[in-house]
Design brief:
5 helices, 6 strands, globular, two-stranded antiparallel ribbon, FAD-bd_PCMH_sub2, alpha/beta, four-stranded mixed sheet
Length: 222
């Protein structure tokens, strides 16, 4: 294994269920660990500091206005639920992909990046977020759990937009109905999470989860 694989990013614990919404079942951890080691040992893209002023500010909004708007949003949703994107851009890997930019960019990696990321916890907070954006004329870019690899990832189409991550805190399974074979879930429920819940309820033989992905997520960005 190369020295690159021993970086802090490479050695962080892989998220597992039920500790985090985006995790995998613990029985898959050995396989995921080997996959992560292989990814980072073969990675050739050099890590480098950001070269442009951070955070990125959307067009038509002054830096002072943007920072003031973010402070207001922190008071609305809680400081821990509003992250200013002023840190190095970490690409992660398949199981831990970024929500601030595109990990597979073909352009300048700092061209399509979010100015901040917000984590609403319910529909009321989503409404507050949209009203805030309209009031300050700040563009927003909603994402959920999908990776959208090869199609731009989580990179906002308007540079400096505030990414609205609907996955982290809105991750509850609201209803599973074995009579009509339907499930009502929030955006942050993964295929893994739904599969495990069906097992806990003894419904796996009765209800199947058809996965168009490799297993974790149930829809793409957007």
């Amino acid at each position: 294994m190369s020295s690159r694989s021993s970086t802090p990013e490479a050695t962080t614990p892989i998220p597992t269920l039920p500790k985090t919404h985006s995790g995998i079942p613990p029985y898959l951890l050995p396989k995921a660990t080997r996959a992560k080691e292989a990814v980072f040992s073969g990675r050739t893209k050099p890590a480098k500091p950001r070269s442009r002023e951070v955070p990125v500010v959307p067009q038509g909004v002054s830096r002072d206005q943007f920072l003031e708007a973010l402070e207001e949003l922190k008071r609305e949703l809680g400081e821990e639920n509003v992250e200013v994107n002023d840190k190095p851009l970490k690409d992660g890997w398949y199981m831990e992909h970024p929500n601030t930019h595109d990990m597979m960019t073909i352009l300048d990696e700092e061209e399509f990046v979010a100015g901040a990321v917000v984590y609403p916890g319910n529909t009321d907070e989503v409404v507050k977020m949209v009203k805030w954006a309209n009031r300050w004329l700040v563009p927003i870019f909603p994402i959920s759990m999908g990776r959208n690899l090869g199609y731009g990832g989580a990179a906002p189409r308007v540079r400096g937009s505030v990414t609205v991550d609907l996955g982290r805190r809105m991750n509850k399974i609201l209803d599973i109905n074995p009579q009509d074979y339907t499930c009502l879930v929030e955006p942050g429920v993964s295929f893994y999470g739904l599969y495990e819940e069906l097992g806990r309820r003894g419904l796996r033989e009765h209800m199947w989860v058809d996965t168009p992905d490799l297993g974790e997520h149930h829809w793409e960005y957007g």
